Amino acid sequence: MVNYLLLIVLHLLGDFYLQTTKVARCKNAKKSSACGKCKKCGKHSWVNWKYLMLHSLLYIAPFVVLYFIMGAVYATAMITVLWVTHILIDTGTCYFNRKNKQTLVFLADQALHIGMIGLLLRFVTFSCYIDDYYVALKVVFVGLMLLMPCSILINKLLQDIYPESEEMGIFDIGSMIGIMERILTVIFAYFDNFPAVAIIITIKTWARTNDLKESEFRNKYLLGTLTSMVLALVIFIIYKLL
Question: What transmembrane ranges does the database entry give (predicted)?
Fold first, then answer.
């Protein structure tokens, strides 16, 4: 389990935190052409290979740490397999983004990446002597999950339901509030203080009283808040099961 968790953490770093908004947008030719900022995307193009390859190279950067905990041959083999499969999976993701809801494609994309890591560990094993830091690794995993992955998932869900809504960045005020909301939810859940979670929702709702008079905003607010809370609790449950 330590090995698997370590590889998942490295995956999160490479797939989310070493991928800029521009790379994430422009590797998908459909989205980049829609934003009008990319002149290299053809009318019928569905993937921008330049940005896809750039993302794939940045993705494997965190996995270089494997050279310090396993043999060079095995590390090279594992990194190569992860790199090639990542390109294949992301190519498929860009293709299906043309025809399917972004939320479903995003979830399928991550499921394939995580599944590939699990499958790879059935053939390649290594000794990772970080048992003393296992709890710290779990905390890092939770922190990484609460930030960008959840924000991106919620953003895609809102865009699927409200196509005309503006895409939010990770540092937009709405995303930042959601991040703090999820962090506090996990902290309160850890200390079994679930009533405090209700207080968070109450304060957030009170601060948005005037905005909630608008029907569309009210629906977006409710969907975003509940999704954020559910994701935080799911991540906390995963933490307890690890």
Answer: 57-84, 104-124, 136-158, 179-201, 221-239
